[in-house]
## 1
Amino acid sequence: MAVLLTGGLGYIGSHTAVELLNSGEEIIILDNLSNCKREVADKIREITNKDFKLYIADLLNRADIEKIFEDNSISEVIHFAGLKAVGESCEKPLEYYHNNITGTLILLETMRKYGCNKIVFSSSATVYGNPKTVPITEDFPLSTTNPYGTTKLFIEQILQDTVKAYPEWSCINLRYFNPVGAHSSGKIGEDPNGIPNNLMPYINLVAAGKLDHLNVFGNDYDTKDGTGVRDYIHVVDLSLAHLKALEKLRNMQGIEVYNIGTGEGYSVLDIVHAFEKANDLTIKYEIAPRRVGDIATCYADATKAKVELGWKATKSLEDMCKDAWNYTKNNIK
Ligand code: WQD
C-alpha cells in the first residue's frame, strides 16, 4: 500500500516525500510540473537513497488519475497540488477555481471510485482572513480576501461534506502558517518562478545579488516595530506534521483540522536581522507602502496539534534562515 502525494515535487510536497521515505513509507508522487522541476525527483532519491513511482500528470485529466489508482494500491492521499500565488489568483480567478477546485473534485471522485477514503489536505492560515485577535485557534471564524484563499476554504468545505456523507472517510486539514527554509542537504528548497512574492525567497535573492533591495511593505502597522508579524515555520517541521497527521488519519474517522505553526510571531525586520545574523550578510531594504490585502499580525495557537498529533515545531528562526540561504547559494544560477 502506498501514500499518494499530489504536488509531491513542489516545495512542501518534496520535503514531505523525503520524511515519508526516511520513515519507511511507500510513496507515489503525482505532479504536473507547473511550478517545479522534474529534477526534484532525483534530489529526493539522492537524499533518501530510496525510490518511488513518479507520475507526471494533471489532476484535471481524469483518465490519467484513474489509471494511477487502477495500477496501484493507494491507502491514503496527501493533497498538496494547487496554484498558490495570491496576486495571480486575483488576476486569474477562474483559472484558480478551475484548477484547485475541479482538480480536487476529480481526485475525490477517483478516490471514491477506487475505495480510497483517507486524505490529508494542505490548507492555509489564509482561511482565517483578518483575525480579530492572536494567537489563532482552529475555531476562529473563517473568511478569505482573495481567490487563492477562497479555494482553500471551499476545499475544506467540500471535504467536510464528503466526510459527513460517507462515514468511512477520514480527513485532516492542516492549516499551514508561513513555511520557509529548506532541507539541510541544500538539495531541495523553495524555488519560485520569477520575482518572488513571499518574504523569505525575496530576501534570499537580495542576498544573492539578484535583486537590489527588499521593499518592506509598511512600517506603520500596530506591531512592535510597525512591520507585519507572521508565524514562520521551518518546512522540515511542517513536513513532519504530515507524518503525524497520517498516523492519526489511520486511526480515526471524521474530519479534523490543525494549525501548523510555531506559535511565535516575528516581524519583517526580525526576519531581515535574523537572516543577516545567521548568514553573516547584509540585506539592503527600504520602507515601501503597505501591500494591498496584507494584515498586521498572524500567528498560530498550535496547541491542538501538540496535544492530538504529538507534533511540535522544533527548529529555530536561525535554522530557517541558515537552511534557506544554504539552498539558495547552492542552487542559484
Ligand atoms: C510576509 C510578511 C509582508 C514580501 C502569503 C499568503 C498565504 C500563504 C503564505 C501560500 C508580510 C512582508 C513580503 C516583501 C515584505 N500562502 N513582505 N516585502 O502574505 O503572510 O502569506 O504566503 O501558499 O496564503 O497570503 O507571506 O511572505 O508574502 O509576507 O515586506 O517583498 O512580509 O507584507 O508582512 P503572507 P509573505
Note: The pocket of WQD is lined by residues 84, 86, 124, 126, 178, 197-199, 202, 214-217, 228, 230, 268, 291, 294 (CB under 6 Å).
## 2
Amino acid sequence: MNKKEKELIDRLEREQSLTEEEYAELIRNRDEEAAASLAKIAVKKRKEFFSDAVYTRGLIEISSICKNNCLYCGIRRDNRNAERYRLTKEEILACADEGYELGFRTFVLQGGEDPYFTDEVLCEIVAGLKEKHPDCAVTLSMGERSSHSYRALYDAGADRYLLRHETADVGHYAKLHPGEMSFDNRMRCLHDLKEIGYQIGCGFMVGSPFQTPETLAKDLKFVETFRPAMCGIGPFIPHHDTPFKDEKAGTLELTLFLLSVIRLILPEVLLPATTALGTIDPKGREKGILAGANVVMPNLSPVGVRKKYELYDNKICTGEESAQCRGCLEARMQSVGYRLVVDRGDAPGYTIHQKI
Ligand code: 5AD
Ligand code: FES
C-alpha cells in the first residue's frame, strides 16, 4: 500500500468523501494490504451500528418470465432454453408462511419483468402478505415500472424496493443492455421510488463486461450521493445461454474490496453478502460478512422452481429446502462469529410509518 492509498483509506475512515478520481485511484492501486486495512475498519464500523447481528431476507423468486433482454442475464427474453414459471398468490403466501416459521421477517418478491404481474395482481399479493404477516416487511424487486405503479404498490403495503442501478455510467449501461432499455429510465425509477418513501436498494455487478475502475468510481459516487438504505453487489457470473457467455466472471477479491469501501462510504447501509458471492467461492458469504456486509438473502422459493430462476451458471442453493438454507446460513454465520437475527432489519434511523 503506498502513501496515497493509505491517505485515501484514512479519509474514508474519518467519513470524508472522496472525489470520483480518488475512488478510481483507490481501486486501481489496491493490494492485499489495503484490502485488509479497509476490511478491518469496515468491520469496526459495521459493529458500531449492528453489533454481531446479521439480518436475513427471505427471497421468493416469483417469476422467471421476463420481457427484457439484458445481455448478462440468464432469464433474458431471447433465451429459448430458459424454463419459465410463475408462482400463484397461494404459492407465494405458502412460501412466506414457511419463511415466517423459520424466523424471516422480511420477504423479498423478486422476478423478471413479467407483464402478468399488473398492479392489480401484485397489489393483491402484497396486501395478502401484509394481512397475514403484519409484523413483516415486504420488499419488491420486480424491475422498472411507472411511478403510478410504484405508488399503488406502496399504498398496498410494500415497504422496500430493490432495483440495482447496474452501472452509473451511461455508456457502460448501454453495453450491458439492449437499445430499448435506458439509463435515464433506470434513474427515473430510482428517484420515483425514493420520492414515494420506499427504503431502496440499488447496486451493481462486480466485474461485469466493460467495467473499469472509472465506471466503478461512478458507482461509488452514485452510492455516496443517492444514499440507498441497501446496496446489493455481487460478482458478475457468465450464463452459458447469453451473449456474455465467454466473458470472465468478477472476482472475489474485488467484490470484498468494494464491500468494505461501501461500508465506509455509508456506515449504516444494509449490505448483503450475496448468493453470487457464495457461488464464486464456497466461503464467499462468510468472507463478505468479514469484509463489512451485514445481510444475507437465502432462498425461500419452492424447490421445484429454483433451478429455473437461473440468472447465472452454477447458482447455489437450487436443490435445498428453505429450512436447510436457514440452518446452513446460521451455521456459516456462527462459524465467523456472527448470528442471524429474527428481525425486520430496517435501515437504522428508519421509522416504520403506519400506512392506512
Ligand atoms: N451474474 C451476476 N449477477 C447477475 N444479475 C443478473 N444476471 C447476473 C449474472 N449473470 C444480477 C443483476 C440483477 C440482479 C437481480 O441479479 O444485477 O439486478
Ligand atoms: Fe442454501 Fe447453504 S444457504 S444451502
Note: DSSP finds 14 helices and nine strands in the chain.
## 3
Amino acid sequence: MTVIRGATTVATDCQEEISASVKEMLDEVFAQNALKKEEVRAFLFSLTTDIHSYHPAKAAREAGYDFAPLFAAIEPEINGGLKLCIRLMLFTELLDNRTVKHVYQKGAKVLRKDISEIYNIALDGPAGSGKSTIAKILARDYNILYLDTGAMYRACGLKALRLGVDPKDGVAVEKMLPTLDVKVEYKDGAQRTILDGEDVSLSIRENAVSMAASSISAHPAVRMKMVELQREIAKGISCVLDGRDIGSTVLPDAKFKFFITADSKVRAMRRFKELQARGENVDFDTLHAEIVARDKQDSEREFSPLVCAKDAIVIDTSDMDIEQVITAVKAAVQSKI
Ligand code: DC
C-alpha cells in the first residue's frame, strides 16, 4: 500500500470554491503520479473545522473520482495551523516501483509542519550503535523514506568478495567500479539492495561482508559513486538516512543531525545477539575485536571518515533502551520543527 498526500486551501467556505479546489488537487495528484484508476483503493479527505458548506467527497465524486470509496473526516485544531484547508490521503496499490509525488497547492504546505515539510534526518555513528533500528522507527512514525547507506557499501564489498578482489586494493577496486551496479528499491516500504540486478538484501548482512564493506568504503572513487546515488535518492523527499558521513558530507544541510554512539562492548553484544538469532555461529571476543577494528578503519580513513558533524546532537545509547532513544530523538525533532 502506498499513500499519496495532497493538500489545498480555499479562500472562503463556499461550495464552488471547495468543488474547484478538490478537483484541481485530485487532477494534479493523478497527473503528477501518472495514476491509473485501478491503482486507487480509497480516498480519505480531512477538513479543518472552519469548512462546513460542502462535502469534499461529494465534490470528488462530481469531478469523476468515483471509482474507489471516498471518506472525509475533521482535522483536529492545530495551534498556528492553516485555515480553510482540505487534505487528502490517497491509498494506492501501485503497479510498479515509481516514486510518489505529494501535491501541496495554494499555500497548503505547512498545515502540519511535522509531516508536510520536506526534511532530512541524518543519523551517523559507529557499527551497532542502534542507528538502523532508530531510523526504521522514525521512518515509520513520520511516514518518510529510510535509506540505509551502509547497505550500499555492503553491496560493493560483496561484489569484491565474489570477484576475489581485495577490498583494500585501491587499484583493483577502481578497475571493478565501472561494472559495479548498486541500486536501491523499496518493496512494501522496506529497502531492497540490488547488486548487478540481484536482490542481495540478505547476503550483505553476513558477518564476512561487514569488514569488506568497511575496507571498500575507504576508497574515494567508491564513496563518490555511492554519495551521488544517496543524494539523488534523498533529493526532494523527506527521508532518514543512516551511515557514517551523512551529516558531515552527504547531506550537510540536513535539518536534523544525530550522532548515535555506544560503548564498543555494548555494540558487540547487540551484534552478537542479532547474528546468533539468525543462526550465525560467532564468538563474542572476535566480534568485539572486529567492531573495534571497523571503528578504527571507518574513523581513520582519509576521505569522508566517520565523524560527528559539528551541529549533530550526540546520543550515547549504551544505557538506553530503544524507546528511550526514540523519545530523545523525537523530542529534539519536535523542538526544531
Ligand atoms: O552501517 P553498516 O555496518 O551497514 O556499514 C557497513 C560499512 O560501510 C561500515 O563499516 C562503513 C561503511 N559506511 C560508510 O563508510 N559510510 C556510510 N555512509 C555508511 C557505511
Note: The mean pLDDT is 92.
